[in-house]
Write a structure and sequence with these properties.
Bound molecules: S-adenosylmethionine
Number of strands: 18
Helix content: 25-40%
Structural class: alpha+beta
Shape: elongated
CATH topology of the largest domain: Rossmann fold
CATH class of the largest domain: Alpha Beta
Strand content: 15-25%
């Protein structure tokens, strides 16, 4: 039987028993079974972690790596109801027990799933683990490295490991791997290791318990934070859960968003009526101090790595549906582009070495640039980053809240910028559609704007200069001679 507890389907009948979990404020009976780690009693190491590690912060996303029958996930879920806990394991029998144990404790904030069922874009504030050291050193390093790599900025982890099973060596390896690790407690031959994530981007605009209370009241549901979603440009996007329901919550700063979010909710309703694949808005409103929230339903799916022909056709079909809605003229992307090309560009300096490409873009348009047509819905940031796919087909277009009015050519050129040089058939199709949506001169104005915008991004990120230059050169090949 040794070694069986990390099998996907443990062999042998599940002989069940109840074990007691007693902690200050918690007295539970948890179901466990043969074929699952800790079938006789709650493990001593687990008890060290539960007694010594801090509880999750309010409104934080937590993961328990190697949850077993769920003693850590259930205890932390009980101690912090506004935090959502992903209870992850490869052992299906263990996951089933965790689900039952969470249900017996009336917890709606524990999600017991296999590792690959956790959305790939999710980042966590806290990781707990009594890790499976017996799987082998390399496998353990790869397991921990993978999950620690998914900690959010300022996130941390608590791991409990037996000293005789290499706790100190593991701590040294983690520190060398870029995760500063200290011993935060030592008890009964166990070490509790505290691991911090390396600093990355600036801290995100955190959701507070007061914010969550506002959202709960507005939606009439009790939500827990399941983690932060990365991938978009906005850096305060969280995934919330309430039982099986999932919601994406964004925080926006600036008084301007108040009106824009109300317009967005109206627009989404109209787009969805027309069959456009975008998730419904579940709520929006003020959070105080010029902060606003936008809550949309979570759509399962993954970001496509590239735009192939099948996906390009799906996107074109979606863009075709733009014609069904008339957005408010308050934000006009066509006017913004014309203003940029006719004057705003003078405020910018191109990095040396890229000025020649900027001149080529500049030469694509007459001066002054005539007004571009307007009146269509423009997403404003239509790139593969804002597409979700399932089995290669488009499942949703997301992150359209910066939308405005303008010409559909703008979104088509933005999609064109995400194609790779070797995908000439895809780019030819997008160019043909971009011109058909307006005309060749409008296409060239949008293309010039896209190239200049791309080149300017190198000023903020000089380390990306070579990639930016390549993207701009590729875009310039799309100009009609
Ligand atoms: C030491 S046990 C801890 C179980 C539970 N957290 C506890 O405290 O009783 C480690 C758990 O990690 C799980 N595990 C092994 N390999 C895994 C992997 N690759 N991904 C997730 N869990 C894994 C095992 O199935 C086992 O349930």
């Amino acid at each position: 039987m040794a070694g069986e507890y990390w099998q996907r389907e443990p062999s042998g009948l599940a002989r069940e028993r109840m074990v007691a979990l007693d902690l200050p404020g918690i007295s539970l009976e948890l179901a466990t079974a043969s074929g699952v780690f800790g079938a006789q009693r709650v493990d001593h190491g687990t008890m060290v972690l539960l007694r010594r590690a801090p509880i999750p912060a309010a409104c934080s996303g937590v993961v328990d790596v190697g949850t077993g029958y769920g003693p850590i996930a259930v205890a932390m879920g009980l101690r912090q109801p506004s935090a959502g806990v992903w209870a992850v394991d490869v052992n299906r029998r263990a996951l089933e027990l965790t689900r039952r144990n969470a249900a017996s404790a009336a917890l709606a904030n524990v999600v017991a799933v296999e590792p690959e069922q956790v959305p790939a874009a999710l980042r966590f504030d806290r990781l707990y683990s009594n890790p499976p050291v017996k799987i082998g050193r390399e496998e353990l390093h790869s397991l921990l490295g993978g999950w620690l790599g998914r900690l959010a900025t300022d996130g941390d982890a608590y791991l409990v490991v037996k000293q005789s099973m290499g706790a100190d060596g593991l701590g040294r390896w983690l520190t060398e791997a870029g995760y500063p690790t200290v011993r935060s407690a030592s008890k009964q031959g166990y070490r509790l290791l505290h691991v911090t994530a390396p600093p990355r981007r600036r801290p995100q605009d955190a959701l507070t318990a007061d914010d969550l209370a506002v959202v709960n009241r507005a939606t009439g549901q009790r939500w827990s934070v399941l983690g932060r979603l990365s991938g978009g440009r906005s850096d305060s996007v969280q995934l919330l859960g309430s039982g099986p329901a999932r919601m994406v919550l964004k925080i926006k700063r600036g008084a301007w968003w108040e009106g824009q979010l109300a317009r967005f909710a109206e627009l989404v309703a109209a787009l969805r009526t027309a069959g456009y694949p975008t998730p419904p808005v579940l709520g929006f409103g003020p959070l105080g101090e010029d902060r606003f929230y936008l809550a949309t339903e979570h759509t399962a799916g993954s970001q496509p790595a590239a735009l192939d022909m099948e996906l390009a056709r799906d996107v074109l079909q979606a863009i075709g549906l733009h014609a069904a809605v008339r957005p408010s003229p308050i934000r006009d992307w066509s006017a913004m582009i014309t203003m940029f090309l006719n004057g705003g560009i003078a405020d910018h300096r191109f990095p040396p070495g890229l000025a020649g490409l900027a001149q080529q873009a500049w030469d694509l348009v007459p001066h002054p640039v005539p007004a571009l047509p307007t009146g269509d819905f423009v997403h404003g940031d239509l790139t593969t980053r804002n597409l979700l796919t399932r089995s290669g087909r488009l499942s949703a277009v997301i992150d359209a809240e910066g939308f405005g009015s303008g010409t559909r050519t703008i979104d088509l050129v933005s999609m064109l910028a995400t194609t790779r040089p070797e995908q000439r058939a895809v780019s030819d199709l997008l160019i043909e559609q971009a011109i058909a949506a307006s005309d060749e001169s409008v296409f060239h104005a949008c293309l010039a704007h896209q190239v200049l915008k791309t080149l300017l991004s190198a000023a903020d990120h000089p380390q990306r200069s070579a990639a930016v230059e390549e993207r701009a050169r590729n875009l310039l090949t799309f100009a009609r001679k």
